[in-house]
Design brief:
It comes from Quercus suber (Cork oak). The chain contains 22 helices and 23 strands. By secondary structure, it is of the alpha+beta class. Helix 14 (about 420-440) runs antiparallel to helix 17 and helix 17 (about 500-520) runs antiparallel to helix 19. The N and C termini lie far apart (about 100 Å). The relative contact order is 0.06. It binds 2-acetamido-2-deoxy-beta-D-glucopyranose (NAG) (6 copies).
Amino acid sequence: MDLQNLSMSPKPSLICIFFIIFTSLVNYILSLDPKFQACVPYTCGDGPNINYPFWILHEQEPFCGNPNFTIICKDKNPVLTIANDDYIIKDIFYSNQSFLVANAMVYEDTCPAPLHNVSLGQTPFNFSLYNGDFSIFYNCGSKPYYPVYELDCASNSTHHSFAVFHKEALELHNYSLKSCRSLVDVPVDVGVNFTSLLLMNYTEVLKMGFSLNWSAQDCSSCERSSGRCGFENNEFVCFCHDRPHLKTCNDGAGACLVMVLIILGVIFLIHRRRLKKKYDPSILLSRSISYDPSGTTDQERESSYFGVHLFTYNELEEATNNFDSAKELGDGGFGTVYYGILRDGRQVAVKRLYEHNCKRVEQFMNEVEILTRLRHPNLVSLYGCTSRTSRELLLVYEYIPNGTVADHLHGDLAKPGALPFPTRMKIAVETATALAYLHASDIIHRDVKTNNILLDNNFLVKVADFGLSRLFPTDVTHVSTAPQGTPGYVDPEYHECYQLTEKSDVFSFGVVLIELISSMPAVDISRHRHEINLSNMAMNKIQNHTLHELVDTSLGFESDCTVKNMITDVAELAFQCLQYVKEMRPSMAEVLEALKDIQHRDYVKDKEEINISADDVVLLKSDPIPLSPDSALNWNISTSTTSNGSR
Ligand SMILES: *[C@@H]1O[C@H](CO)[C@@H](O)[C@H](O)[C@H]1NC(C)=O
Ligand SMILES: *[C@@H]1O[C@H](CO)[C@@H](O)[C@H](O)[C@H]1NC(C)=O
Ligand SMILES: *[C@@H]1O[C@H](CO)[C@@H](O)[C@H](O)[C@H]1NC(C)=O
Ligand SMILES: *[C@@H]1O[C@H](CO)[C@@H](O)[C@H](O)[C@H]1NC(C)=O
Ligand SMILES: *[C@@H]1O[C@H](CO)[C@@H](O)[C@H](O)[C@H]1NC(C)=O
Ligand SMILES: *[C@@H]1O[C@H](CO)[C@@H](O)[C@H](O)[C@H]1NC(C)=O
């Protein structure tokens, strides 16, 4: 509207305005600093914007960046050389001075096998906290049973190469790393959802890259004053459109005015021409106004504490519809669990802890950090929690949609024949895998029960509620609020020394095994006095050769010979787990191995001949398993010790 007034003003003033605009324009163009022009941001192919302190060799002038940040464009990729290794820069975050790189080898070799550790030595770079410890082991004497990323391309029949997150787990598992010729640590950015990392293969994991942060003089004040940062005489300089300046372009306002004048002038000229042609100028005007020179807007910052995502209380209150009791998923040992949907659409299970003791909060974050780092396909992922300043401690877990094993065995979701024996076997193996992983990470679950074994839509096991006891360590004054296990599953030795060990988890898992073959709940007061506890009932039946009274008839125990043999073996394993004296129980690792053996054994063939293949070390070391329950008492599943292996 103002423009229309302008266009109606008398001619002499028009000419005057035009003259001012023209001279400013000429002035601006003539006075442009060549260094300012040279340091325009650049990209290699589709890569990120390369800007100070980075600069591109051959494409830009050395004064545009710090010599430690020299990038070379190779095949449209920005490549940074650190300690003689090439890394492709995948992304640069100027706002928090960090960037994501991946070893260039990963993109070039069919079998990427970095042979030395990433050395940051004298560089201005540092590893950011978002990286997880990923280690590659080359040429080891044996394969660990522990789940690892296989490196088939670098292995042969005698020398195995593999990679694993948290190598400590292997050592805790008594896997001797001494048998490996070399070990290379590779950080991997685990800022993404860790579960997706577990679904990847080795190369894909390496392609995730890792993040580094840098220290260099901050250039943001220069950029805010519409200058461009550069580097001269070992110093950061700010190039302005008309002259170099040390810190900022103070005349930024002046440059802005010139720009505004130019834009206005151009609009004005076009406007006049269009007016003559009777065009409506408003379209152009609105376009010019919507142009935002600052580019980006401040986004809501994601907060996190040492890699643990911190949710705000309000966010979770909103996600759970104000902790709507209709959305309650269950009542766990340490708190109530609610279903929720985060703003980003993720479905979550939010655990509201009963305990609000301030002292606990101190430990809380460290413990949550340990728990978030525990990643396994058979463990429910912990996404994060509320911050220590929040008014309540809430834990946010991945939501698992398909109920618990208890629901499917004897709860709301139970249907005759719905869980066939092979599925139950798979559940047993996956649960044992998760527990063995926890034990290898030095964590006792303390509350193993079918209510804590969740199933996803593909009946993949997700063990929940692990490690919460770490948040509330055994403490005499808190015995009542920190439950140690659930009736029916608790290690009988616990009542003698009030201490839970890994073998207590083994006992509870024994109860789970019996539930899987019997479909009966762990405790049922409608049963006979001596059989209220399923573990007692099972021990009696197995010892009295009446296993058939325990087994769920719908599984085919009487009709299918293979199923009968498998169930008998599982019952015998459970019998070992349920031993009163904990020293007599196998370790979780041994239980897992025995279960896998039962799952994969060819029972039909075994009858004719005990065929030992190279992989079946377990079979080789343990005696052929007798089918009669009589053997239960002395059947030894131990595979590592020879103490009583030779009968
Ligand atoms: C830096 O910011 C980016 C994007 O905002 C984020 O993805 C990244 O995790 C941050 N890195 C660090 C080390 O804070
Ligand atoms: C890499 O670092 C680890 C310790 O972090 C060390 O044990 C290993 O030998 C190193 N590997 C090489 C190839 O230097
Ligand atoms: C396996 O690889 C190792 C190391 O690369 C080599 O020393 C060994 O001879 C190979 N063995 C076989 C059977 O190929
Ligand atoms: C590892 O070996 C130690 C000592 O021999 C033993 O106490 C521990 O139970 C073993 N751990 C596993 C997971 O087998
Ligand atoms: C890993 O997965 C990618 C794509 O999913 C595939 O192209 C590649 O061949 C796989 N690599 C190996 C070593 O299996
Ligand atoms: C880079 O990250 C490390 C680890 O988080 C931190 O100690 C260091 O201060 C960071 N450096 C910069 C310049 O942000």
